[in-house]
Amino acid sequence: MPGPRFVVYSRENCPLCDDFIAELIRALGPLAEHIDIRDVDADPVARRRFGLKVPVLTVDGSLVCHGRLDAAAVARLLVRCPALPPCT
C-alpha cells in the first residue's frame, strides 16, 4: 500500500521555499524520497490556488501548511497513517 503523496509547491529563487523543503526532508526522514516538488508558476491552476502563499505543502491533495513548515502537523499526519513509521 503506497504512503501519502507529499507535494510541495514552491518557486525559483525562493529562500523560504528552500528552507521549507530542507525542514520537510528532515521531518520525513526516509519518506522524503516521496516528496514531489512543483513550481507553482509552471501550473496556472496551482498559481491561482496558492499565489504568493508558497511554499505550500499538500498531502494527498489536502493543504497541510504554507509559508512555514508546521512540523507538528506533519508529525500528526505521520502518526495517523498506519502504513508509516511514527515521526521521531
Structure commentary:
- This protein has 88 residues and is α+β, with helices and mostly antiparallel strands.
- Helix content is 35%, strand content 22%.
- The chain has helices at 15-28, 44-50, 71-80; strands at residues 6-10, 35-39, 56-59, 62-66.
- The longest helix is centred in the N-terminal third of the chain and has 14 residues, at 15-28.
- The two termini are 22 Å apart.
Query: Separation of termini?
Result: 22 Å
Query: Order of SSEs, N→C?
Result: EHEHEEH
Oligomer: single chain
Segments where pLDDT lies below 50 for 5+ residues? none
Continuous helix count? 3
Shape: globular
Helix content: 25-40%
Radius of gyration over C-alpha positions, nearest whole angstrom? 13 Å
Chain-wise SSE layout:
Blueprint: E1 6-10, H1 15-28, E2 35-39, H2 44-50, E3 56-59, E4 62-66, H3 71-80
Parallel strand pairs: 1-2
Antiparallel strand pairs: 1-3, 3-4
List keywords for this structure.
single chain, 88 residues, alpha+beta, four-stranded mixed β-sheet
Condensed summary:
This protein has 88 residues and is an alpha+beta fold. The protein is built from 3 helices and 4 strands; from the N terminus they run βαβαββα.
